[in-house]
Design brief:
Oligomer: single chain
Radius of gyration: 23 Å
Structural class: mainly alpha
Helix content: over 70%
Number of helices: 12
Shape: elongated
Number of strands: 0
Order of helices and strands: HHHHHHHHHHHH
Strand content: under 5%
Length: 285
């Protein structure tokens, strides 16, 4: 009996594997909806998020204001929709800064070893020895509040985990026959690191990054809650929760609406990360 050989193009695509994972599909759909709401905010928000109507301050949810109004009479639904923008922008900035920096440090340390590895890893250990969130607060306090400063603060305190993981994997690859064969055919230096080491290190870094996204969202909300995020009156979920805590016992919806948005977004990224781990990591396949 002849063996049945599956054609490569018959293998399920990455998108199909995502759709077959219940957690990845559910999380991905919610994330896409949040992204769409942030992009289409000027068209779907019922009111100007910064429009103050003191006559309607602290109004409960109603037909006119589905989620009620805050202490300045601003529509909470509109502010929640617009509040997704700074949160997702900060998340994007952190991802673009944190993961590449950590992967670069880890690959250089793992491949060259020796004094290079000792210096880079000691710097990594020093950064890891500080509580991440407290160190981020200190950076923002020094540089001043703002979206870019918040992203820099979170990035500069979150990259060591990626560096240590990339360093371990690169050190194992350095002794492999795969890199030895690549060097024998003349592939060396940056070309070797970029074309052969990075693709093998990247999947595990993507898995870790996906698992860290919800933590980054909570850290960004924490910066906004303490007044170290975007400047008012820009809508931001953490700052909205902070404003709502002043009237939480009488007008609970002022803090509950942005808090629910943070909860749903963090949960969606957690579900998506769990599904991506099952898809990209062969040990969980």
């Amino acid at each position: 009996m002849s063996a049945i050989v599956q054609h490569p193009f018959e293998e399920p695509s990455f998108l199909r594997r995502v759709l077959r994972s219940p957690s990845a599909a559910a999380g991905g759909i919610v994330v896409l909806l949040i992204l769409a709401a942030a992009l289409l905010a000027p068209w779907i928000a019922p009111y100007d998020p910064n429009l103050q109507e003191t006559a309607n301050r602290l109004m409960p949810p109603s037909a006119a204001h589905w989620f009620g109004t805050d202490g300045f009479g601003r529509d909470l639904l509109s502010r929640m929709i617009y509040g997704a923008r700074p949160t997702l922008l900060l998340l994007l900035f952190v991802v673009l800064l944190m993961a590449p920096l950590g992967i670069l440090v880890g690959i250089l340390a793992g491949y060259f070893g020796g004094i290079t590895e000792r210096i880079l890893m000691r710097i990594t250990d020093v950064v890891m020895s500080f509580p991440r969130l407290l160190l981020a607060f200190a950076f923002v306090a020094i540089m001043g509040p703002g979206l870019v400063n918040g992203a820099l603060a979170l990035s500069l305190t979150s990259w060591p985990a990626y560096a240590r993981q990339a360093r371990v994997e690169t050190a194992a690859l350095r002794r492999s026959d795969y890199l030895a064969a690549a060097e024998m055919v003349g592939i060396k230096g940056i070309r070797l690191l970029y074309g052969h080491v990075l693709p093998l290190v990247l999947p595990s870094a993507i898995i870790r990054l996906a698992l860290d996204l919800s933590g980054i969202i909570l850290a960004a909300a924490g910066l906004g809650f303490l007044g170290l995020g975007v400047r008012p009156p820009t809508a931001e979920w953490g700052a909205m929760v902070s404003e709502g805590t002043q009237v939480i016992f009488d007008q609970w919806w002022v803090a509950a609406v942005p808090g629910f948005a943070i909860l749903i977004t963090s949960l969606a990224f957690n579900l998506l990360a769990d599904g991506l781990r099952d898809i990209l990591d062969p040990r969980h396949g």
